[in-house]
Design brief:
It is a single chain. This protein is of the alpha+beta class. It has 2 domains: about 140 residues, Jelly Rolls (Sandwich), CATH 2.60.120.10; about 90 residues, Winged helix-like DNA-binding domain superfamily/Winged helix DNA-binding domain (Arc Repressor Mutant, subunit A, Orthogonal Bundle), CATH 1.10.10.10. The protein is built from 8 helices and 11 strands. A 4-stranded antiparallel beta sheet has the order 1-8-3-6. A hairpin with a 2-residue loop joins β10 and β11. α5 crosses α8. The longest helix is centred in the middle third of the chain and has 27 residues. The protein is globular. The C terminus is likely disordered. This is Transcriptional activatory protein AadR. Pfam families: cNMP_binding, HTH_Crp_2. Keywords: DNA-binding, Transcription, Transcription regulation. GO terms for molecular function: DNA binding; DNA-binding transcription factor activity. InterPro entries: cNMP-bd_dom (IPR000595), cNMP-bd_dom_sf (IPR018490), Env_Response_Regulators (IPR050397), HTH_CRP (IPR012318), RmlC-like_jellyroll (IPR014710), WH-like_DNA-bd_sf (IPR036388), WH_DNA-bd_sf (IPR036390).
Length: about 250
């Protein structure tokens, strides 16, 4: 957003999970101050290499993905503005997937030693990043359910609800509208559907008045019906700190 610092979105995201002191925010600001613009399909962390930096997405969409020898791609996760990816940094080992841009992106790189010093010197940031990883794992489980048990229509509906919810958390929505930095090929590689199937499903959803897509501007026109189709419950995207013993009234976790 205009007038905001480079790290504003990642600070906003992490502060939703754990209260951050001024020193915590300043540390992130300093580490994200130097950024670089990358075009679409740029590899940021390569499969097989031991990463030497964390990646912070400041603008655009990036993702984790795997390519098969045939060239087919499966996107494993979306990295949206405000997301920090510290894959294999604490316990260095070769990457089993690639992290790359899905659109033009502005990205900050935090060198491994600087990242480790940050989480050691700022316990609140370390806790917030741990909680963010729990959300990442919950998102991965939802994607597994989508690919295994949801129809094409349900998969896309759930993905659009999820993207809206995640972008809203960092202030990048206007009502039910947001910028969708994914092509139909990107949607296909995310949902494990063919591009033809994605195209047909999007056409049907537009015809039914569920969504509107003009250029990259995406609008959910009927949020209640889209959530009903997806059976969407966004609780898995929330991970604020709770006290030990908090949970269901009857003692269930």
């Amino acid at each position: 957003m205009a007038g905001e610092s480079a790290a504003a979105l990642v600070v906003r995201k992490l502060a939703r999970m754990v209260p951050l002191a001024a020193a915590d925010r300043a540390a992130l600001e300093q580490l994200c101050a130097r950024s670089r613009r990358h075009g679409p399909h740029s590899e940021l962390l390569r499969q097989g290499e031991v990463p030497d930096a964390a990646i912070v997405v400041l603008q655009g969409f990036a993702g984790r993905y795997r390519h098969r020898p045939s060239g087919a791609c499966q996107i494993l996760a979306h990295l949206l503005p405000g997301d920090l990816c510290a894959a294999n940094l604490v316990y260095p080992r070769p990457m089993d997937h690639t992290v790359g841009t899905l659109s033009s992106c502005t990205v900050a790189r935090i060198p491994r030693e600087s990242y480790l010093a940050m989480v050691e010197q700022h316990p609140a940031l370390a806790r917030a990043l741990d909680l963010a990883r729990l959300v990442d794992e919950a998102v991965a489980r939802e994607w597994m359910v989508s690919i295994g048990r949801r129809s094409a229509r349900e998969r896309l509906a759930h993905l659009f609800c999820e993207l809206h919810a995640r972008l809203a958390q960092v202030g990048l929505t206007s009502g039910y509208a947001f910028d969708l930095h994914l092509t139909q090929v990107g949607l296909s590689d995310t949902t494990a559907l063919t591009s033809v199937h994605v195209n047909r499903t999007l056409r049907d959803m537009r015809r039914e008045g569920l969504i509107e897509l003009k250029g990259r501007r995406f609008v959910i026109q009927d949020p209640e019906r889209l959530r009903a189709i997806a059976e969407f419950d966004g609780a898995y995207l929330e991970a604020a700190e709770v006290s030990p013993g908090d949970g269901m009234p009857d003692g269930r976790a």
